[in-house]
Amino acid sequence: MRICTISQLLRRSAVITASWACALLLLAAAVLPATGEAQIPRKINYQGYLTTVNGAPLNNAALPVVVKLYDAASGGNLLFTETQNVAVSNGVFSMQIGAVTPLTLSFDRPYFLGVAINGDSEMTPRQALAAAPYALRAVQAELFGTVAQTSGSNTLIDGGPSLPDVGQYNAISIGLDGNPVISYYDMTNGNLKVAKCANPACTGTAVVTTVDNSANNVGRYSSITVPVDGLPVISYADSTAKYLKVAKCANADCSGSATVSSVDTSLNAGVYTSVAIAGDGLPVVAELVSNGLKIVKCVDPACTGTGSILPNTDGPPTTAIGTDGVPLVVQAQFNGNLRFSRCTTMQCTATTTGTLSATASQLAPGLAVLPSGLPVASYLDFTNKRFVVTACADANCYNSSTLQPGAVNVVANYAAFNTADTSLAITLGADGLPVVAIGDPEMGTIKVIRCASFDCAAIASVSTPVTLPRSVGPGALNGFRLHLSLTVGNDGLPVLAYYDPLNRSLRALKCTNAGCTGTGWRR
Question: What are the angstrom distances between the C-alpha of 408 and each of 7, 83, 140, 295, 379?
């Protein structure tokens, strides 16, 4: 059996086996109409990348692909099956699940995808479906008004006025069980902590664990992702030793003894870390060091060893994975440029790099990859005092070595605040379009912006689900740190983690609909 990789577009990575070729498979967003259940095209876009056993891209005019949906990760009941002959060109193929056999499942419970290619046995393990397919169920609920009538939740996860100051430098992901998992910094004790929510809405009592309580000050700049084994991976800073560290949890809620490794021990490493799972199923971490950006590629799931560590240009980075499984990085350079880097391989032995935006000074970059493969970035333009989203004009952001950014679209403005106190996050909604969360310390609010186009040139909705007093901290506008992170649950609804500076605590907000409208919380 040869080892291959399978990767779900929104946030999953996995290792699967096949007996004849290596396949990288990507599950994209279901296409949904605005209204009318009869109009719902109940299909799921599916893309793949196939190679021969020697790693060469496959070409085949009509390759049989069998997809199956089950109600369990192994065993269980077969609920759907379909066979299509797909054209493979330079390793790439696309198909729509449901194009041959009607896809009539209700999407009201977990489903698991199995794939077999060219008569081979089904690849293992099966892949848990996530946000995009479950948008089918979300649309059904909205048609009957149930989503709009459901009250939202804003839950204290950890901390409080008389407890340790926790919740800054938070990051959020979704576990294989559909429940959010959050990494964050315990400033009082200088530790890295992880909270695993008890349900998709993060209500109830979360499992809170101190993952790294070494004598050093650790936990700033945390980033978290959940690979196919369900065991979260966290990158973060050791601010005392100035190292980059990675923790691999021993179980899904991180309550066991994690494997903790000092991954990069070079000077001033571990600042602004961002972790993702590449197409080979192994972590990749972007970080800022004293001499610029580094992209660290792990050689095992726990990142106890690294292959390539590539120096690049300066500025805070964010990483994502392209539809071909290759790491991508966007960074806000200190010279004011927004820089885009693409690894040339999954192992990231080299990069191609160019300037995505050079119009003004940039901060707080975010990055997502659309179902079409186009990278889309968010950032803070502090020269012009605006929050901006821009998408590349092609999947690589390059055309004949020239960077191809799309239009710069302003999604919000501000007057004045300490830019170090703000946060900006971008992810994809169940419809495959960007959703942006903004922490505005000037107004003491968190805003959620749901885009109506791939580059946010059109806005579907703007909401303010969180409002806090502006007088927090030493001044009305200073010391108001609004660290936040954003993802979309398996139900297609956004969920945010954020730091409450009034009570020095970590909170989680679960939206009631795709735009987080109708959900408000005030102090």
Answer: 29, 42, 34, 26, 10
DSSP code per residue over 399-415: ETTEE-EEEEEEEEE-S
In a domain, 500, yes or no: yes
Could you read off the pLDDT of 162-201 as tens digits, one per residue?
778 999 999 999 999 999 999 999 999 999 999 999 999 9
* 429 falls within a domain: yes
Contact 264, 249 (CB under 8 A): no
Boundary of a domain, candidates 133, 149, 172 = 133
How far is Cα 283 from Cα 237, in angstroms, rounded to an integer? 16
Assigned domain for 468 exists? yes
Query: What would the pLDDT profile of 436-465 be if each residue is shown by its tens digit?
Result: 999 877 777 899 999 998 888 889 999 999
Task: Report how many domains make up the chain.
Answer: 2
What does DSSP assign to residue 154? E
pTM for this model (two decimals): 0.72
Structure tokens at 178: 């559909």
Asked if residues 297 and 305 have their Cβ atoms less than 8 Å apart, the reply is: no
Query: How far, in whole angstroms, is CA 479 from its chain's centroid?
Result: 28
CA distances from 212 to 189, 194, 242, 269 (A): 11, 10, 15, 17
> CA–CA separation, 110 vs 44, rounded Å?
16
Pairing of strands 22-30, 12-18: unpaired
pLDDT tens-digit series, residues 58-98: 788 788 999 999 988 889 999 999 999 998 877 777 788 98
Residues in the chain: 523
Residue 138 lies in a domain: no
* Domain end position, chosen among 78, 107, 133: 133
Tell me the CATH number at 74: 2.60.40
Question: Rounded to whole angstroms, how far apart are CA atoms 266 and 398?
Answer: 31
Which token pair is 53? 């056993």
* 237 close to 244: Cβ distance less than 8 angstroms: yes
Pair 154, 466: CB distance under 8 Å: yes
Measuring CA to CA, which residue among 317, 403, 391 is closest to residue 353? Answer: 403
Q: How many CB atoms lie within 10 A of CB 338?
A: 26
CA distance 96 to 107: 17
CA distance 17 to 19: 7
DSSP state of 214: -
The CB-side HSE value for 412 (13 A sphere, CA atoms) comes to 25
* Helix residue ranges, H only, 122-170: 131-143, 146-149
In Å, what is the CA distance from 68 to each residue of 80, 112, 127? 5, 8, 11
| Residue 489 structural domain | 419-523
